[in-house]
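Hey, can you fold this one?
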Amino acid sequence: MAATTQSMGSLPSGAGICTTVPDIFYLPELVFGGLVWILVASTHVDPQNPLGWVMFVSVFCFVMTFLWVIIFMAGCHRNSSRWAAADFAYHGLAAFFYLSAGVILAYITMGMKSFGTVKTYRTYIAAVVFAFLATLLYFIHAIFSAIRWKHF
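Sure. Predicted structure:
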């Protein structure tokens, strides 16, 4: 019960990241970000430049979020306000990155309707939905991280 009643001004470690807000969003961020990565990578990446950005964002955020989870689970953050600020900064940046990637992917998908295959079009639609869900999750995480940072 102590893990769920933890104050907003402290950073959890160990299994506590599975029960506290905003850290409970780590798993859905990894799932939806990984789905964007998989769905875009499963098709022929054309045009390369904008979809390269989408791939960069999804891979970068997936790896960084995974490392962030490991750092918090291992307790390497030492419960300092710098880590709380870094948590807010990372999730705010990730939300901005995913928003830009989602908009680019939606634009490409809209243009693909007339000349792309149905399977690729549907795959990209799913990737767009998951990109915007990841954006929402990272944004909510950033808001709660800012609140936690404020209470430090």
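Residues 22-150 form one domain. Let me know if you want another pass with a different chain boundary.
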